[in-house]
User: Fold Patatin-like phospholipase family protein from Piscinibacter koreensis.
Amino acid sequence: MPERRKVAIACQGGGSHAAFGAGVLRRLLAPDLWPRFELVGLSGTSGGAMCAALAWAGLIGGGPDEAVARLTAFWNAVKASEPSDALLNLWGVVAARAPLAAEISPYLYRPLVEQRLRELVDEHVGLARLTPEQRSRSPVALMVGATDVLSGERCVFGGQALTTAHLVASAAIPPLYRSIEIDGRHYWDGLFTSNPPVREFTDPSMCAHKPDEIWVIQINPQRQASVPQAIGDIADRRNELGGNLALAQELYFIEKVNQIAARMSAAAVPSSYSHIGIRVIEMPFGDLDLASKLDRDPVHIDRLITAGVELGGRFLQDAEWPQSGSLPRANRCIP
Assistant:
């Protein structure tokens, strides 16, 4: 029987759009996949960090079925299902789309969204309920991206020290959130510097088993059909480019490693420089605007999750894997 290829999955963030990543993970965690592949790492930023952490904790707590159950339960809890919450959600999305939407410092009030996210993470990820032994025995590494507000440094959290605060910090997009203080340092959303973390998959101190392939779940569209001219369209595209800039830097690092490996003879290539395949699963809704990343409408969330499940399945089918588990076709899976 051929050796299973090692795979790491990186989940880009993007507010409620990260529900698409949850759908993809639900399909990629199906039991029919893993006789041919071995999952060695999960990473994410912002909403992608939530998805990665939910999957990781579920795998530790009960396996793939538990991981899928946690992803489903978390996003069901995120939905604005109650009438009062639905009204508040609608007001927030409409206000975000207003031509002259005012921004208010989160230090002038206590943002309820931060406390609610902490509660959701505590309930559904449950990092505090995982013992050190459970974390250390997990064959899957977890990495979460954030940004140091003062130094501008790219920060990646993982391992035994990962807490609810680290996950909230990864999603603390200003000005919706205050900065999250951890051990005297202040953090914002990781989208500015690592969206999501990828290069750490090559670092043995962060990921014990170097992957043969990295599968990236990309939320922000890479391309658009026309030049934006309306102010709202310009803001949308600026947000997309900003979110993808950090990802491009991460993938550039992997590509440089691959180029070094290609220039060396097979006998001389150390394991840390062996070739890593990159596969991208891109969300199909390029017409969604920036405000929709705040939208928690159940129909919107369900649409994104369903699309993720369907495109995750298409990714598997289109790859036409032979029994060896290699991926001979295109690197990018888009509709």
Q: What stands out?
A: Residues 320-330 have pLDDT under 50 and may be disordered.
